[in-house]
Amino acid sequence: MNSLSNGGSAAARQFPEGFLWGTGTSSYQIEGAVSADGRGPSIWDVFAHAPGNTFHGDTGDVACDSYNRLEDDVAIIRELGVGAYRFSVSWPRVLPSGSGTVNQAGLDYYRRLCERLLEHGIQPVVTVYHWDLPQALEETGGWANRDTAYRMGELAQVLGTALGDQVRMWITINEPLQTVHQGYRAGTHAPGKRDDALAAAATHHIMLAHGLATQALRACTPAGTRIGPTMDTQPYIALDSASEAVADILDADFNRVYLDPVLRGSYPDAARTGFRPPDELIQDGDLEITATPIDFLGVNYYRPHHVRSGDWEDLRLGERRIGGFPGFVQYMAPDLPRTVMEWGIVPESLRDLLLRLHRESGGLPLYITENGCAADDYISPAGTIDDHERVGYIHGHLGAALEAIAAGVNVGGYFHWSLMDNFEWAEGYRRRFGLFYVDFESGRRVAKRSAHFYAQVARSGELPPLQDVVPSGERLPDVPATPAAV
Ligand code: BGC
User: Fold this and answer.
1) Domain that includes residue 84, residue range
2) Is pLDDT above 80 for 462?
3) Looking at the domain assignment, is residue 109 inside a domain?
4) In this predicted structure, what is the pLDDT of residue 209?
5) DSSP state, 276?
């Protein structure tokens, strides 16, 4: 629990004037309609269809069928009373072969979506790249090929020109770390590569793509348009002094290789080979491009990682080896509340992350562009979806955001992940992150209890005491502070 769980004054529970409330999705996770109206294949179509890559062999072929249910989705966003909706553009819907010929039908779909949102006073917030690279570009090397960065610059220019009068806030890339790590190092996401050299190359090219997209958007959108990347900076928390140096290297490998080229125009020396892009790939002027000024930093936060000393040959409960660091383990306290993804629930880590990024970005506006939890939701016989754990999760993390704001961090908004249950990548449809439940057979969307709670907060701008939103007799897990060192 944090200081605002049940205590705290009404003033301390109030979000600042103009705070942007939103929710988000991404194209491959919700749209379906993978062959409609000239869309080309993406790396996720190919990856999900290959045996063994996703839970149950699930694919995004239909997903939430949002491409055909645009009106339904705008209607549920309205129910939430939020001021903004974050969605991503399917690159192969707009440029079916990754570059060159534009598919007007694809652009029209996004223009229509923006139009409908704006009619209801909801601001579209558009992510240019959320993981569904056109397969045609994968065939020329994907993110390991420098040319892909220029192709993303081209995409941004096409989008900025077509939607620039409707969209005032753009996110260039979503979580470059996951594209690189899961896509090129661990092989758990498309395109399923397991090669450190490709991963290090992809790191530089996706950061270059961010810079080129920022410049392209800036050049073709009206003055006042806000542009920034979204990072999923992972908190590595050392639980003993011996592991501090390890946590610092992990921070360089997994976080600073993405933050520093944007915020400092450099890659961290502390990052290991296979993480830091090799010098021969960095051309003159590249780091000026990656460091093109941005208007905000998007922050996706789900959980922290705890690191401590531990015997690799005698692992204890909650310990996992950390590759490359014999004698050090990632640790999760057995009593730490966790979601069904086995992700520990530690809201104060969000507060600390916001404080860190505030310092490191020189006070840039920060937007929490994703935060949320998967739960085993089901429709009760009474027709309700009583996702208490999600209500508790949101409450805790909004409390953490308020604490960061009180400490002077400029947090401009919060986008809950996700608007509705959707295709959770390699986990398929078994992991539900939505405020709205989706019955994937019929496509029906049903508001969960968390949707009602979130709507109340978004409309009032105030976080009520937890005891007021969780009826007596219902108990939410306490969220303990960081586990003690051993
Ligand atoms: C991604 C989302 C994903 C969510 C939950 C983030 O890494 O941006 O697409 O669904 O986390 O795993």
Assistant:
1) 13-468
2) yes
3) yes
4) 99
5) B
Positions annotated as catalytic residues are 175, 370
E-assigned strand segments in 205-251: 226-231, 236-238
Provide the CATH number for the domain around residue 454: 3.20.20.80
pLDDT tens digits for range 388-416 = 999 999 999 999 999 999 999 999 999 99
pLDDT digits (tens, 9 = 90+) for 169-207: 999 999 999 999 999 999 999 999 999 999 999 999 999
Cα 132 to middle of ligand 1, angstroms: 13
Rounded to 10 degrees, the C-alpha dihedral 272/269/282/190 comes to: 40
Q: Which atom of ligand 1 is nearest to the CA of 427?
A: 12
What residues does ligand 1 touch, defined as CB less than 6 Å away? 26, 29, 174-175, 178, 232, 300, 370, 417, 424, 433
pLDDT for 473: 60
pLDDT in tens, 52-69: 999 999 999 999 999 999
Asked if residues 257 and 278 have their Cβ atoms less than 8 Å apart, the reply is no
Q: How many CB atoms within 10 Å of residue 257?
A: 25
How many domains, the chain? 1
- Per residue in 317-361, pLDDT (tens digit) is 999 999 999 999 999 999 999 999 999 999 999 999 999 999 999
Indicate whether 484 belongs to any domain. no
Spatial distance between the Cα atoms of 120 and 87, rounded to a whole number of angstroms? 16
Chain position carrying tokens 């190359």: 201
Contact predicate 69/8, CB 8 Å: no
In a domain, 478, yes or no: no
Strand pairing class (436-438; 445-447): antiparallel
Q: Which ligand 1 atom is at minimum distance from the Cα of 230?
A: 8
Asked whether residue 55 is assigned to any structural domain, the reply reads yes
Please tell me the pTM assigned to this model. 0.97
CA nearest 235: which of 177, 295, 172?
177
Taking the C-alpha atoms of residue 384 and residue 405, their distance in angstroms, rounded to an integer, is 34
For residues 311 and 157, what is the distance between their CA atoms, to the nearest angstrom? 52
